[in-house]
Design a protein that fits this description.
This protein has no helices and seven strands. The mean pLDDT is 78.
Amino acid sequence: CCRLSQTRTCVSGRTCRLEGFTGDLLSSQDSLQVLDSCGRASSPDGFPQDGLSVQAAGIGLLATWGTVPISAAAGMYRLCWFAAPSSSCAVADEFRVDFGAVVVLGLAQRGQDRTCISRALGQG
């Protein structure tokens, strides 16, 4: 399918659009899913639709999760590929081809309950 070890970057709190993947026989019917480990139902928190992309387009593969910003914690996640599904209900276990990583920059957008206070040196 695709050249392995392709890495792309997304920023937590923003929409995520991944472009420029290369490989043979890529199809607009293929699916991509962000997982902790390809071939296992281990979808990380913070990606819309359990990490399943809403769009994957053929040559120069493009993947997007729509207009919903991702809220995943900063880190590296696996990008998993599934050939044009014969049904629309492909499950995470079927995404066995690990062809790269998604690096998420930023903090998780959920559960933030700390306040930072700036103080000048020599005061208070």
